[in-house]
Amino acid sequence: MDFIDFTILAIKIMVVMGALLNAVPILVWVERRGSAFIQDRLGPNRVGPMGLLQPVADVIKFIFKEDPIPCHVHRFLFPIAPLFSLIPASIIFAAIPFGDTLEIWGRTITLQIADIHIGILYVLAVGSLGIYGVLIAGWSSNNKYSILGALRSSSQMISYEIALGASLIGPLLVYGTFSLNEIVHLQAQSWGIFLQPLAFLIFFVSGFAESNRLPFDLPEGEAELVAGFHTEYGSMKFALFFMAEYIHIVTIAALNTTLFWGGWQLIPGMVSLANVLGISTYPHSVGLALLKVAAFTLKTTFFTLIFIWVRWTLPRFRYDQLMMLGWKILIPAAFINIGATAVLLYIGWL
Question: Model confidence over 157-197: pLDDT tens digits?
Fold first, then answer.
C-alpha cells in the first residue's frame, strides 16, 4: 500500500466514523421528538430551535458530569466494559459498502473501507463480540440488577444469533458469495427482498433483539431491573453504552439495506433498464457515485426510523414470550427458509 492508498483509506475511515458518531446525537433528537409526537406531547423544545441543540447540551453534561466509581465494583473491568460494546458496533461498518466506485484523478476508489471476501462472516463474528461488553459490565458492577440484566442479554443473544445467522444462509445460497460488495452488485437485477422475503423478516426481527431495543429490551427493563447491566454507570461511561446502542441500530439498518434492499442500487432491475435504454449500468461519474451514496443513506435512515417507531409503539415482551419467539418461531422459520431456498435453486426457480 503506497502513501496515496493509505491516505484514501484514512479518509474513508474518518468519513464513516464521523458519520456514525454524528448520527448518534441526530438519532437522539429524532427519537425524543418522535416519541413526543407519538405520545401527543412536545418533547425537547427549549435548547435551540425545535430543541435541535438539546443533544449538544446532553454531550456537554456527560463530559463534565462527575464520574465516581463505586467502591464495590471491579476496578479494572468496570471502566473498560463500555468499550467492549462500542468498538465492535463501530468496526462492523468497515465491511459495509456505502457506495459503488468513484474515479478521481485516474484512481478508482471503492466506497467501502475494506472489501472483505468473507464480509458476512466478519459481520457476524464481530457483531457477536458486543455481548462481552454487557457481560463484563454486569459482572464487574457487583450488583444484582446488573448481573440479571447481563444474564438476560447473554441468553437473548444466544437465542437470536442463531435465528439471525440462519436467516442469512438463504441469501448466501442465492448469491453464492460472502462478499457484501458482490452481493450488492448481484442485486442490480433483482433486490434480495423479492428473492428472500422470509429471510428479511427473520433478520429484521432478530436485529431488534441484537440491539436490545424494544420490544426486546429485557436486559435493561427499567420496571424490573432499574437500568439492567448499566445500573452503576454514569457520565461518559453511560454515554458510551448509549452510543453503542445507536451505532448498533445504524449498523443493523445498513445491513438490512445491503443484503435485502439493493444497498446503493438506485432502483430494482437496474441491469434490465440499462439494457433497454442502451446505457452502461455503472458509468463512472462523481455525481452518480454521490447519488448512490445518497440512496444507501436514505434506505438506512428509513430502517433506523422504523427502530425508533417500533420502540414507542409496541410494549415490552415477557421473558418467556421473548424466548418462545426466538426458539419456537424464528429459528424453525429460518431453517424452513433454508430448505425452501435449496429446493427452489435445485429446480431452477431462483
Answer: 888 989 999 999 999 999 999 999 999 999 988 899 999 99
Does 48 fall in a domain?
no
Per the CB < 8 A criterion, the answer to whether 296 and 216 are in contact is: no
Residue 206 resides in a domain? yes
| 82 contact partners, CB below 8 Å, separation of at least 6 | 133, 137, 233, 237, 238, 240, 241, 244
In a domain, 254, yes or no: yes
293 within domain boundaries? yes
Number of domains, the chain: 1
pTM strictly above 0.70: yes
Which residue range forms the structural domain that includes residue 213? 68-346
**Burial class of residue 223, CB neighbours in 10 A (0-12, 13-18, 19+):** exposed
Backbone angles phi, psi at 320, to 5 degrees: -70, -35
List pLDDT tens digits, range 63-100. Answer: 888 888 888 888 889 889 999 889 998 899 999 999 88
Backbone φ and ψ for 53, nearest 5 degrees, come out as: -90, 5
Lookup result for grid cell 455503472:
282
Q: Where are the beta strands (DSSP E) in the chain?
A: 101-104, 107-110
